[in-house]
Amino acid sequence: MRRKNGYLLREIGGQKIVVAVGERTRDFTGMITFTESGALLWEALGEEQTEDRLAEQLTAVYDVPCEQAAADVHRFVCKMREAGLLDES
Amino acid sequence: MNPETDRKMACIREKGLYLSTPTGRSMRPLFKGKDETVVISPIGTPKRGDVLLYEGGQGKQVLHRVIRVTPEGYLMRGDNCLGTEPPLTPDRIIGRMTAFWRGKRYTDCETSRPYRLYARLWPATYPLRAPFLWVRARLAALLRRRKKG
Questions:
Q1: B57: phi then psi, degrees, rounded to nearest 5
Q2: Would you say residue A15 lies in a domain?
């Protein structure tokens, strides 16, 4: 899986926010605010990823147990899937 | 107000801002419908030259510039538009544009000198641009009629 094209991560006032641009605005008119770790996962999803690989990248940066990282990644991926931001072909 | 408008206003109240993507051609040359994002902040006290996000006709959201402040409301016009709209009342305003990105380049509307100059000068060139805009509108109407007929 990877993130769909046509979305940009913007940073303002300490907030990291994803918005749609161009043609994608037809599918998505909202904005999603990320935490630092969420933004890291979003950036990583610029390439093909699995949940395991994403969890590894989280634990490489943050001092969290593997199980927590895996749970956080799963929750994140579910939210992205729900919002229609993932390409899982 | 339509639900989309309510949602954006709630976001501004809760988070202090809303990020929106301009679409369409009405705010060219400032926005060309490419990788642009605008920061919409609480309304404050709009003045001439400010760009406001508001609910227009049929519940659509519109991002246009204040041309004049009148007792009846704000007279609005897109940077690429011929006509000035009927007065906009504060109850239809979602927020005010305070910054934007074009690609990766960020511009703060309050502090950017080039932007402030543009916001002041571009509307002032309207009397020069209006005849060309009028011709363009006439040609577009003619082409639409020919397509239908």
A1: -65, 150
A2: yes
B2 touches chain A (CB under 8 A): no
ipTM of the complex: 0.78
Question: In this predicted model, what pLDDT tens digit does every residue of A43-79 receive, in sequence order?
Answer: 999 999 999 999 999 999 998 999 999 999 999 999 9
Query: Of A42, A63, A83, A64, whose CA–CA distance to A54 is shortest?
Result: A42
pLDDT in tens, chain B (149 residues): 788 888 888 888 888 899 989 988 999 999 988 889 999 999 889 999 999 999 988 888 999 999 999 999 999 999 999 999 999 999 999 999 999 999 889 999 999 999 999 999 999 999 999 999 989 999 999 999 988 87
pTM: 0.86
- How many domains, chain A? 1
Question: CA-CA distance, B106 to B54, in Å (whole number)?
Answer: 22
Chain A residues within an 8 Å CB radius of B37:
8, 10, 19, 21
Quick check: is A50 in a domain?
Answer: yes
d(CA A41, CA A9): 12
Instruction: Note which residues in 21-50 of chain B have CB less than 8 A from chain A.
Output: 21, 23, 33-37, 39
Domains assigned to chain B: 3-148 (2.10.109.10)
Mutating which of B9, B19, B20, B109 best tests the A interface, going by the most A Cβ atoms within 10 A? B19
**Residue A20's domain spans which residues?**
2-84
Specify which residues A57 forms β-bridges with.
none
Nearest CB among A12, A22, A30 relative to B39 is that of A12
Residue at token pair 């729900």: A82
Domain presence at residue A58: yes
Distance CA(B135)–CA(B144), nearest Å, equals 14
